[in-house]
Amino acid sequence: MCNTCNVLVCTSCVAGKHNKHEFSKLVDAIAQLRGENEKQIYDKINEANQNITEIEDSLTSFDNDVESVIQAVTDQSNMIKCMVDKGVAQMIALVNSQSTKEKDKIMKSLSAAKSVLVAGQNIDRKRLDLDKTRPDETMVQKVNKMKEKIIKLHIDPLPEFPKISFNSKAVTEDDISKLIGSHTLR
């Protein structure tokens, strides 16, 4: 294997086009490529797993925050029963609507992260199957193609996770909209 040109060469070609190039045995070249592929795929799988964990943790936290906001709205509405029933229903619907939209965005990120993980695991299975085959002249091509697939695995950066909170307002009898606090979703 000519390391300089990254091609297989026979012993008679060594003195010609590949004079003063660095050479290695085919088995060594394949072993090196396998090692590189294994490290890269494990790195990508680990990163995908970390992203999934962070996204899932964020979803749980976001769900808890949404529940806290809904509870705060409900608690305050109980103090002013008749006047705010309609406002509470509207606010909860708005919180649920907005949080559903935000959660859908996060779920898309989670789905994409899981797709990368599955793709990485599929490549890893193919790598393991290839490791079990006998080295031959096509193996370098297969290993290089696998390397290209690994490089093409794109791990999206983590999205900005939404946060939701509740801001209570002072209670006055003039304006029903002022009786119930507001929430912010960013």
UniProtKB/TrEMBL annotation:
One Pfam entry name: zf-B_box
InterPro entries according to UniProt: Znf_B-box
Residues covered by the B box-type domain: 2-25
Q: Which GO terms describe its molecular function?
A: zinc ion binding
Tell me which domain of life the UniProt entry assigns to the organism this sequence originates from: Eukaryota
List where this protein forms a coiled coil. Answer: none
Protein name, per record: B box-type domain-containing protein
Organism of this sequence: Mytilus edulis
Organism classification: Eukaryota, Metazoa, Spiralia, Lophotrochozoa, Mollusca
